[in-house]
Amino acid sequence: MTRRTVRIAMNGVTGRMGYRQHLVRSILALREQGGLDLGNGEVLWPEPVLVGRREHALRALAEKHGLTEWSTDLDAVLADDSIDVYFDAQVTSARADALTKAIEAGKHLYTEKPTAADFAGALDLARLAAEKGVKHGVVQDKLFLPGLLKLKRLIDGGFFGEILSVRGEFGYWVFEGDWQEAQRPSWNYRSEDGGGIVVDMFPHWEYVLHELFGRVTSVSAEIATHVPRRWDEHGKPYEATADDAAYGTFRLEGGAIAQINSSWAVRVHRDELVEFQVDGTEGSAVAGLRTCRVQHRGLTPKPVWNPDIPATYSFRDQWQEVPDNAEFDNGFKAQWELFLRHVVLDEPYHWDLLAGARGVQLAELGLRSAAEGRRLDVPEVTL
Questions:
Q1: 368-372 long-range contacts, Cβ below 8 Å, gap at least 24?
Q2: pTM over 0.85, yes/no
Q3: What is the structure's pLDDT at 313?
Q4: Burial tier of 254 (Cβ tally within 10 Å: 0-12, 13-18, 19+)
Q5: Residues 192-212: tens digit of each pLDDT
Q6: Labelling 255: which of 5, 241, 307, 320 has CA 20 to 30 A away?
Q7: Are residues 130 and 352 in contact, defined by beta-carbon separation less than 8 angstroms?
Q8: By three-state DSSP, how is residue 321 classified?
Q9: Contacts for 323 with CB less than 8 Å, ≥ 6 apart
């Protein structure tokens, strides 16, 4: 086998998501399997170059995983002609400037979302990348979850008939940080630092809805800061200035209605941390991270409302499990593989900066809808 090395500058891998999902479970996992088989006797070998602000953290990561290259000088890394791809998993407020530098340096780029702090900035990035002719991709990991892959299989097979509605529930209780450590960094709860659940989650809901059910044509949202006081990583109290819950209604192209609740102030009473129920004329499904259950029209029971007697059956037991029928890899790794094949083989790839801009647009309109108390149209995004 001929080895084809692709050098990837990975910025932000000292953070939770950048480290666990992108470095360890994607790039290092590819190396552990011997690289990415490109066919014709060629294998792609990803060579990460760790980038960040904290020298001691980068050195520790490199030593832990047997890596030799790391740097706190992003400009120097981008000036290195041997770097093929720039990846960004920094905090949102730092992302657009770094992506702009990478595009100007002629690097292909792959990035977490949101791609910028506002829609105008996100669209500018997409236009600049198109102008410079670099390849670009945006992480849309939930499309590669086993539960949603099963759901897409049902859609493609016509299981639902006409899709009528989508209902999503996402979230969990994030501890305040005083008597128990918070599960998320404190910047998530400060709007001045790019925090907020709308900015974080609406870009996810945009691509899930767009890819599976149709383009979002309008949005109506209510937002809240349910927990106004939290404690940071050093035990210092601070006022939460960003929304920690959002309740959105989305009209989709074709007429279906989607309702998605997102909250970091909710206790979980569902099988998985995120679930989507899809109802259609011929059947319904409930998909989570890994599982998907269905109830077809021909097997739908006939409930009768009678609150005076206890139910003698379980509604959940009346649904059927959708089989795997495939082997599912880590969703982040699966998308990395597709992007790297796009870079070196020019294979088709549409999860790009324009798709990322749609997500930022929906978040921006969601916040505006909540502030103005009205439903807003979502214009189609083009370069």
A1: 369/219, 369/220, 369/221, 370/198, 370/221, 370/222, 370/223, 370/243, 370/246
A2: yes
A3: 86
A4: exposed
A5: 998 999 999 999 999 999 999
A6: 320
A7: no
A8: strand
A9: none
